[in-house]
Amino acid sequence: MDALSGAGPRRARCSLGAASPGARAAAAPWARFSAWLECVCVVTFDLELGQALELVYPSDFRLTDKEKSSICYLSFPDSHSGCLGDTQFSFRIRQCSGQKSPWRAEDRHYNSGAPTPLQREPAHYFGYVYFRQVKDSSMKRGYFQKSLVLVSRLPFVRLFQALLSLIAPEYFDKSAPCLEAVCSEIDEWPAPVPGQTLNLPVMGVVLQVHIPSRVDKPEYGPPKPCSHENLLPAPVILTSVHELDLFRCFQPVLTHVQTLWELMLLGEPLVVLAPSPATSSEMVLALISCLQPLKFCCDYRPYFTIHDSEFKEFTTRTQAPPNVVLGVTNPFFIKTLQHWPHILRVGEPKMAGDLPKQVKLKKPSRLKTLDAKPGLYTAYSAHLHRDKALLKRLLKGLQKKKPWDTQTALLRRHLLELTQSFIIPLEHYMASLMPLQKNITPWKTPPQIRPFRQDDFLRSLEHAGPQLTCILKGDWLGLYRRFFKSPHFDGWYRQRHKEMAQKLEALHLEAICEANIETWMKDKSEVEVVDLVLKLREKLVQAQGHQLPVKEATLQRAQLYIETVIGSLPKDLQAVLCPP
């Protein structure tokens, strides 16, 4: 057993039993497997050691002792949850510094086409957990307690929960051979490509999923089955790889959805105290999904315990609370995080009947006891007025017993339109800062993107503000002013500025390729010509690495220009620029 005693990474194995250092090298390189998962872990409860890592597969995947410890503690519900039977939840941990795996070309290709919130995480691992706790008289403690954990950099919670539902029950019955077979099947899957619908066979079932693309239009129904394949057995169609049932998650807080949306938009520190890891992780993931298509730029932990390596960092009172959304189940956090400005305490979600009792807004000073009632404990006052029409429609849907996915679609559409109404004026203003294409000439450095001036933007809202697309009234100006101070404005601005700078470079490359290069070279010195070659090569490398949005024809012409220019130089310079 690989316990938490500081043992180093496991070596490769021929099977999941006996060690064999060269096995993985001799077998498959796991390239396709690692496009979806980093590794699979099995965590068990040891009487002497507590939670312990029983297995990592592929067995030569390197986890630090700190990462192993985090995975072990976060893979089990804490003692306050009392989870009997099977339960699923998720967590997110920071990857240890200095241990980052190299960023592969496939990762960059996926991220270039994926919506920003669904891009592969460079510095965090997601853990998707299937935990089983059942009475077992053969065990010393009287219970069988074990977790199967999928570790990935992809935020595909729905897909990996569905995968665990197939794998885990079988694994708990048949153990290691089943797991090895499943990993081999995953290693045969095609890589996730944004915009494609894929068929993923596993354990006699075919999961059909659509990988979202940044050019996809929002859809609320299931993806259409692939018409060009007659699959037997018929595929199980997942309506989404990542979207949760928002209506079920938000049932107890529907009257405060807009307040919570504002808190997420502003990157405010928030604690979600829930009765179980399943409820806590789903609520945290639902909250951060409120901002889509805007990327959530703050840290978030769907499930967090007192054993986490960041516990001291997040609970210190010597500085302001960090911009983190924490999901916890231990009431101890009420005392430990009492200085945090926003605490949401919720009960178990209900699946049927009338709308459950809504949590009330309460002052943080009332949150003093461990048995505090459910509520949103905050002194924050929302900038926008509540959408009463939305709540009425949701209540009417409950009364008429409309399908839950219909209710979720209504709620998701409302939040999407709210976020888009907020972001569109920012996008329009940002686009106005881009230099005109007529000012981009081939032989001069491209003009600079003009600076973002907050006062100019706020003045533009009078005739081009969110009121054009959103009926909600309120203090939009005040909300934008607070947004400018948040990590989300910084993240959004940096991303948009980067994209615009790349577009500018691409337009400049196109202008060079459309110009007559031989005419330009006539009166130029060798130094100027060599400088042009080096700059063109640099742009070509950027473009080929999917960092510049240019057409293939432009790349081919740029390569031809480089060859033409080098051919005009003396032989000694040609040898320097094109060594054999």
UniProtKB/TrEMBL annotation:
Signal peptide residue numbers: none
GO CC, any one term: recycling endosome
InterPro entries named in the record: cDENN_dom, DENND6, Tripartite_DENN
Origin: domain of life: Eukaryota
Entry's transmembrane regions: none
Record GO terms (molecular function): guanyl-nucleotide exchange factor activity
Residue ranges occupied by any UDENN domain in the UniProt entry: 38-494
UniProt keyword list: Guanine-nucleotide releasing factor
Family: Belongs to the DENND6 family.
Entry protein name: Protein DENND6B isoform X2
Organism: Enhydra lutris kenyoni (northern sea otter)
Chain's gene name: LOC111157536
